[in-house]
Amino acid sequence: MAKVQLCNITVMDNPSPFLNPFQFEITFECIEELREDLEWKMIYVGSAESEDYDQTLDSVFVGPIPEGKHMFVFQADPPNVSRIPENDALGVTVVLLTCSYRSQEFIRVGYFINNEYTDPELKENLPSPPQFDKVTRNILASEPRVTRFKINWEETNPTENNTNSDQNGASAPSTSEAGPSAPVEVPAFNENSNSWATMECS
């Protein structure tokens, strides 16, 4: 059984200008204390044609984590626009949130994004190169694609896992209101990360 359950993800500041940071409020629950870090990643899919255009926007390590429910805001700068093919600048793409334990990815959440101009004139006469400062990013928050992977939670050097369950179209379950909570300092956040370095637990 997985020791970490994803409870809820809230997409913040959506829709927003393309050059604004991504912000996700993530709530998860540990059924028992985790002595090693969880690694969260945010990945922007620059092109459906090749993974070479994928950009890791941020990666944070959180831990050790006590038993209970926890919440943090995962924030990352927008992608480097110079690495996005011009033909893929507008239209539909994907942002991925992943979480790993002991270098084993156990959950992946994907959100579709629609990037478009709001100015009718720019819609009719697409500029080249794209003017990203005039593009609006709209994340389809209501329809995340959630994939869970079976991993080894116990071994120090676990073997590679090859089982997964795909739950396309399933929303991350909503979280009931938690009682009073106190902030827990998590010193293992990356120093260069934009994510909040505190979590709340109950």
UniProtKB/TrEMBL annotation:
Question: Which Gene3D superfamilies does the record cross-reference, listed alphabetically?
Answer: Histone chaperone ASF1-like (2.60.40.1490)
Q: Which UniProt keywords apply?
A: Chaperone, Nucleus, Transcription, Transcription regulation
Keyword Ribonucleoprotein attributed: no
What segments bear the compositional bias annotation Polar residues? 165-178, 190-202
State a single Pfam family of this protein. Answer: ASF1_hist_chap
Main location, first listed in the record: nucleus
Location(s), subcellular: Nucleus
Q: Where is this region: Disordered?
A: 151-202
**GO cellular component annotations, sorted alphabetically?**
chromatin; nucleus
Q: Which GO biological-process labels does this protein carry?
A: DNA replication-dependent chromatin assembly
Top-rank taxon? Eukaryota
**Mind listing the GO molecular function terms for this protein?**
histone binding
Signal peptide stretch: none
The Low complexity compositionally biased stretches are 154-164
InterPro entries from the xrefs? ASF1-like, ASF1-like_sf
The similarity annotation says: Belongs to the ASF1 family.
What protein does this entry describe?
Histone chaperone asf1
Q: Specify the species.
A: Diabrotica balteata (Banded cucumber beetle)
